[in-house]
Amino acid sequence: MIGANICAVEERRPYRILLDTDVDTDDLFALLYILKLNRSYFDLQAVTINTNAWTDAGHAVNQVYDILYMMGRDDISVGVGGEGGILDDGTILANVGGYHPIIEQGNGTSGYCRYRQAIPVGSGGKLDRDTNYGFRKSFLPQGRRKYTPLRQPTAQQVMVDKISAGPITVFVIGANTNFAVFLMSNPHLKKNVEHIYIMGGGVRSKNPTGCCPENSNSSCQPQQCGDRGNIFTDYTSNPYAEFNMFGDPFAAYQVIHSGIPVTLVPLDATNTIPISSNFFEEFEKNQNTYEAQYCFKALKMARDTWFDDQFFTSYFMWDSFLSGVATSIMLNENIVDGENEFAEMEYMNITVITSNEPYGASDGSNPFFDGIKKLKFGLMRNGVHSGHVQTGLRDPFCIGKNCKDGYTEEVKGREGVRVLVAVRAKPNRDRNSVLNREYFRRFLDVLNRQRQSGKFNFTTQFPHYREVFYRPDMKGKRLGRNVVFDMDMSAGDFLALFYLLKVPVERINLKAILVSPTGWANAATIDIIYDLLHMMGRDDIPVGLGNVFALNQSDPIFSPVGDCKYNKAIPQGSGGFLDSDTLYGLARHLPRSPRRYTAENSVKFGAPRDTDHPELRQPRAMEIWESVINSLESGSKVTVLTNGPLTNVAQIFLSDKKLSSPIQEILIVGGHIKSHKTDKGNVINIPSNEYAELNMFLDPLAAKTVFDSGHNITLIPLNIQRKVSKFRKLLDSLYLTKKTPEALFARRLLSRLQRLKETHPRYQHMDVFLGEILGAVILAGDESFLKMSYGVRKIKVLATGVESEDGGIINLDENKGNLVKVLENVDPLAYYNTFANQLGAEKQSAVIGSFEEQRRIWSSPQN
Ligand SMILES: [Ca+2]
Ligand SMILES: [Ca+2]
Hints:
Elements lengths: L1 H9 L4 E7 L3 H12 L5 E8 L7 H14 L6 E4 L45 H5 L4 H5 L15 H10 L3 E6 L3 H9 L7 E7 L43 H4 L2 H8 L5 E4 L1 H4 L6 H9 L4 H15 L6 H4 L4 H13 L11 E10 L55 E3 L6 E9 L12 H11 L32 E7 L3 H12 L5 E8 L10 H10 L7 E3 L31 H4 L40 H11 L6 E5 L4 H8 L2 H4 L2 E7 L24 H4 L2 H8 L5 E4 L1 H6 L3 H10 L4 H19 L7 H5 L2 H7 L8 E9 L11 E3 L6 E8 L2 H13 L10 H9 L4
Parallel strand pairs: 1-2, 1-4, 2-3, 4-5, 5-6, 6-9, 10-11, 10-13, 11-12, 13-14, 14-15, 15-18
Antiparallel strand pairs: 7-8, 7-9, 16-17, 16-18
This protein binds calcium ion (2 copies).
Protein name: Inosine/uridine-preferring nucleoside hydrolase domain-containing protein
Pfam families: IU_nuc_hydro
GO molecular function: hydrolase activity, hydrolyzing N-glycosyl compounds
């Protein structure tokens, strides 16, 4: 087939392609497939990242950079994020980051997770996508390109550049937000878009999963069987939607109704190409390139961690199938009706449902209409966008399968758009093959081609690569106070961690780190902790990962999904998750640890089956805590320092009393005790909440649980943190100290935070992170040198569920409340010097300074 059309193709220039992707596992297959095609036919110009779906922007963008580096394609532009907003009057500012569906997009990157909450956050969800099950860091080489704050090209910028440069074809394999925003703000550039290929939706699809076996008894209740959609986390509300469309139904509507020719590869077609066991086995036998290996590793881990034994009937080729179908249609350009090698096509008249009837009923669910006088985007009062919009999981209006948001419904007349639809995957033309789909064969063939293949992976890149675990020599040392550090991986927490690792072990014995991914960073960021520990020669310190939801915020019916009531305050973009997840672009300068998050798991810990390396599994926070408690000599105690939301510590108190009784003291960095009305808290983006401090607000119920425990608590509240948040002063001290790798890294991070604060309004809150270091310094510091003084208060933390109050602290009189020790004074200069001097100390300094140093070591022979 290809041969027959080559003549036609050679007369034209290569197709320029822009790929918009949410960097899910399947998207990696799609991207690598495109990269392997003949470049004189297909010229991938840019990858733009969809930031409101299955991955978090900071992790997604660096994974894309690394894949392109492995494939020798650093020439391909990568766009992610942006800080632009949409004003109330409908004006779309430049560089909208696409972190939110258009209906929720205001002026900023924080906001509610209306649709995104249908996506699991931890294992089996974003955590596994952000890390590609752990293979991203174990397999992909790391090139020079990476995310850097304010220098990273935005998705909109890249779209404008590439689309204005000439005719282009756009592939959308995530939610449609980026491309819809582009089309709405650049109508004059539509003419350059030759065609749009979208993976998403389900038109006449019938979900093949969740069905009762033919011979089953009458007690079997079919689940999603026969539904149009695939939102497996909430079929009862919306059985019609497919994830990509559901991610932003209004955006999908804009793209499909743009007037540009659209080809859809919906569930209708992808449901007919489930990963078969034969395909899986063939793939296992055919891994002749690094890219094939990378894809197979992910696919195998997806199978090995699948929640039931139905993987081969529930996991499909989605986005990768789009790559095949789209490029095959493009090669056959002289043939009408989208004829191609891999899928049967049909024209259908469709639309995308964005709201539910009755239209015009203002019930508080639709931000486009509720309380709005002048409608934006030319919307009409009783139009198709004016009905009830699904508000989230288990929306009462939707229960009983009433909602169709995101459904690509067939319609008659003007409301529909004639779209070419892939309806089913074609069988393999070679009837003797064990692969039953034509695309299976081609996919393996393309991925295994030696032409345009990856040059190396992370370990083969270096002739002298070797994995080293660093452990300190503790022989003959009398170890100091037992400390467990609980952090949410905000920037200051890493500086605090450096400090704790520099205090002589005779004074502080850091036993373990617990991670609360309920604050400033996403769970996958745990790898930065591993890398930092590696740098400091402390691969012996265990790291436990806590729950991904604040207390009572996970869904009662299906706990991998849940609400974002509190962490919606954290911006998704600049100054928020994007920066935390990359440590403001600096994480990649840390040496790479042999330890990292991995989806490896074992039956012993509740997994459905053992993976190949269950011994590597990421321990949970509670396990690590338990092992710390069990390792204590009788009578010894442990101090907990918390630098984030109190989710983990609350879990400890809610479990067996034996696990909390060895706690000597809890040092809490956080909480705000207001002394007068103008003494405000720091909960950004939630204007109604004036007096809370973020660590308390992010999990108020956990905070209340901990304060009500009656344990020995020392509070390092916001007002004292604010006294020590002068970047200039701390940097001055750091410039005077010895240049250990850790002092240099701290200097680099702090000066970057300072510079960002000075240059861009989105970075105004940077001093929050400076105050965070205080807890670590207090814990180990010299009380008289630091001029520390404490008061005692009777206080209570509010956890009422009322947004304006939650996380607030009230003072109580003598007889009520919990007695808490509160840090009231510290000498700022002494504090800055203590921190700087400790980081500059020669003892307990880094054993390997940076990734650069690691590269050098691996590039030359060892002695
Ligand atoms: Ca995708
Ligand atoms: Ca923190």
